[in-house]
Amino acid sequence: MTIWIDPPRWPAHGRLWAHVISDTSAAELHEFARAAGIPKRSFEGDHYDIPAERHADVVAAGATATSGTDLARRLAKSGLRFRKRRGERPLGRFEEGLPAVGGPHTLDIVASPHEPPTSSGATVVLITSGDQVVLVRNASRPGWMPPGGKREQGETLRESAVREIREETGLCLEPQDLMPVGYERITITPGEERRHWDAGDNHIAVYAAQVPDSTPVAPLEADVLEARWFNLKEAHELCIDQPWCVLVQHFLEHRWPELVEQSG
Q: Which are the contacts of 230, defined by CB distance < 8 A and separation ≥ 6?
């Protein structure tokens, strides 16, 4: 095990912070963090943030002290760097995270106030002020999930999203009604292209939109077997193993914390 920590020289929130990385694997890093009592909320996609007062504790737990320059070099060389833009927060990285891709890939989950850099498709979380969310059941995919799908030629990403909403739930929204939640980044190694996925980065945008309580839903597309309202607790239990779930939970905790509290 090789875990590295740089000096606590990075100011934020009135404190100085250090970074802890692995130059081998994310799994190794998480295992070390758990053993050292580093909270999950400190994870930033490719490193944990450590306050200055805990630096000595982390070194005593087995991390090797090094310079900030050396730590950055080791992280870049490892291939574990998590790409993000200002205002974005990494929520998870999963190898072979989407079975639908059908081959080797890396799935990154990114909370973001921005549109994704490129767009392959979108999914939309439709929610009411009364703790209800729409999920659909599709003939081509197992389980329940929010409405969404691939972007068609000539469409903007938001146009694609509102079309999918109408086809899968019967609800009519405008592109400006959508709030960015974040995105899923599916990265496929060159030479490993799939039928519906390109080599390199593919992005699925995740939006949220609020609709009136008691709004009826009815699929217009034959492939959608059913569309139903669930409360947030039910939806979480149905979809907890799906990558977008952690992204939506993060969004709700920051945007509508009263709904999260209400749902228990």
A: 132, 133, 134, 135, 144, 238
229 DSSP assignment: E
- Nearest alpha carbon to residue 251 among 260, 243, 241, 242: 260
Which residues lie below 8 Å from residue 29, measured CB to CB, with a gap of 6+?
3, 20, 21, 22, 47, 48
pLDDT of 134-166, one tens digit each?
999 988 777 898 999 888 888 999 999 999 999
In angstroms, rounded to a whole number, what is the distance separating the alpha carbons of residues 6 and 20? 7
Please write the tens of the pLDDT for every residue from 72-85. Answer: 999 999 988 999 99
The Cβ of residue 150 has, within 10 Å, a number of other Cβ atoms equal to 13
Average pLDDT over residues 20-31: 92
**DSSP single-letter state for residue 43:** B
Following CA atoms 238, 242, 247, 250 in sequence, which dihedral angle do they give, to the nearest 10 degrees?
40
Residue 143 φ/ψ, nearest 5 degrees: 80, -175
Sign of torsion, CA 171 175 178 180?
A: positive
Q: What is the pLDDT of residue 254?
A: 74
- CA atoms of 174 and 81, how far apart (whole Å): 37
Length of the chain: 264
What does the alpha-carbon distance between residue 111 and residue 92 come to, in Å, rounded to a whole number? 10
Contacts of 168 (CB under 8 A, 6+ apart): 136, 138, 147, 148, 149, 219, 220, 221, 224, 227
Model confidence pTM above 0.85: no
| 134 in Cβ contact with 165 (< 8 Å) | no
